[in-house]
Amino acid sequence: MIRTIVFYPDPVLRRTGDRVTEVTAEIRQLAADMIETMYEANGVGLAAPQVGVSLQLAVIDVAHDEECVSYLRVNGEEKRLGDICPLVFINPSVETVGAKESSEEGCLSFPDLRGDINRPGEVKATVETLDGEKLVIETDGLFARAIQHEVDHLFGKLFIDRMSSARKLAIRRHLKEMQDQFG
Ligand code: ZN
Questions:
Q1: Ligand 1 is a single-atom ion; what residues have CB below 5 A from it?
Q2: pTM of the predicted structure, to 2 decimals
Q3: Is 77 a catalytic residue?
Q4: What is the mean pLDDT of each run of 10 residues along the chain (183 residues)?
Q5: Which has the closest alpha carbon to 138: 150, 130, 126?
Q6: Distance 27 CA to ligand 1 centre (A)
Q7: Which of 1, 17, 59, 154 has its CA 20 to 30 A from that of 127?
């Protein structure tokens, strides 16, 4: 089922999601719906708060382009993106490594808004799957960026927070319009 994506400035986007302590049938349905909703919106990631659910659960699929990362290790083993995408994960913690790189991002909760965001180029993320498996994901490129973007959502942080002050100034009117329309 396609879920309704909530837009900025919905307060749910600013909350830290609760950790998922028990994977119920409802949580599995939520994850399946989020994958469907992400594909329908042509996104590469979606976090539960973006469908109005304040939980530490997110989905990512960047496997349309195996070349968007230069390496991927899962629990120390070399993998292809297609092996783990679509990825559904809960209760993440992320260590970032590498110099910050700037790249353009969008967000399904901010239609028509894009911006260059500086983020570390590589991540080591420890996440859980719905089946209780622990995954340590080490990667770079678009996958590293998507993981950081989605994990930010689970802690109430948004990509506009990470824009340069010049870019923030430039989008002030756009944000004001969103506040008027969706606030
Ligand atoms: Zn987003």
A1: 107
A2: 0.97
A3: no
A4: 98 98 98 98 98 98 96 98 98 94 97 95 98 98 98 98 95 96 94
A5: 126
A6: 20
A7: 1
